Amino acid sequence: MEKNSKIYIAGNTGLVGSALVRKFTSEGYTNLVFTPYPEYDLRKQPQTTDFFEREKPEYVIIAAGKVGGIIANNSYRAEFIYDNIMIASNIIHAAYLSKVKQLIFLGSSCIYPKNCPQPMKEEYLLTGPLEPTNEPYGIAKIAGIKLCESYYRQYGCNFYSVMPTNLYGPNDNFDLETSHVLPALVRKFHEAKIKNNKEVTIWGTGQPRREFLHVDDLADAILFLCLNINSEEIFKQGISHLNIGSGEEISISKLAELIKKTVGFTGQIQFDESKPDGMLRKLLSSARLNELGWEKTITMEVGILKLYEWYLKSSQNRHS
Question: What are phi and psi of 269, to 5 degrees?
Fold first, then answer.
């Protein structure tokens, strides 16, 4: 990959896509291209194919998709499976037709079985049922993984997938109906602080443990892979993707305490045990990626503080 290579980042305005834009731009890559919506709807094959024929990208990173937390995953099951399958299928096939040099597809740790051994290794894919609340999303992401693998095996395409753990950072989604747990807690504690509430209520028991990675670390990992790893090196190991995680996990209750401290909320934390917990543990094994030479650099304390500062700044901009 050269500094002037044409790089297409699908989903450039989202959490991951915007982090990729920041990272690649800061490293001197000057020829990034994007798909403006609604002119190009990636769920529609003719529009996607037209974009590839017009722009002819050399490298593709698929960060586009419909995402959300446990409420959104469970409430919009049809949209989550349809939109994500169509986006992956259309981009991957168009990349094949356009003879793209390299494509990286981003999945999610929810591809792994509900009762998966921990930490979750790449080879545990498709060894058991998925967690029911996010099964449609997980199936769509598995389809994307298998598309990349199949286009490699049949056509020799340099296409492969990466599985990030739970991500957070600038441009995160703070909508309490559709967001993931970490940004949702940041908003809950901030609003409780502003309103002088005496307590914050959190879904579940607080016992589930989750792994988190700052999105800027993910962007760094993806650039590392673009420059150093091709699909053959992954598939020859008998796996279809690489995990990208921090290697650290924290319980929801301890995460809540950390966010409470960062925000400066002085009230109490209550857990609504009538609400679902989801999987009790979700820790990726990132041993393979670490062996290739990549490690995360942003700690949870620093990452959450950076996220809260961004949230405050973006809130001020929305109300100014």
Answer: -110, 125
Is residue 78 in a domain? yes
| 293 Rama sector, left if φ>0, alpha if ψ -120 to 50, beta otherwise | left
Q: Alpha-carbon distance 306 to 70, whole Å?
A: 24
CATH code of the domain covering residue 65: 3.40.50.720
Q: What is the mean pLDDT of each run of 10 residues along the chain (320 residues)?
A: 97 95 98 93 96 97 86 85 97 98 94 93 96 92 98 98 96 85 95 97 94 98 97 95 96 98 97 88 94 96 97 77
pTM (2 d.p.): 0.93
Q: Is the separation of the CB atoms in 64 and 86 below 8 Å?
A: no
Residue 1 in domain:
no
Nearest-10 Cα torsion for 153, 136, 95, 213: -90
**Domain ranges, residue 101:** 7-172+212-248+282-298
Within a domain: 205: no
Positions annotated as catalytic residues are 137
Q: Which two tokens stand for residue 181?
A: 């747990």
* Domain annotation covers residue 198: no
Q: How many domains is the chain partitioned into structurally?
A: 1
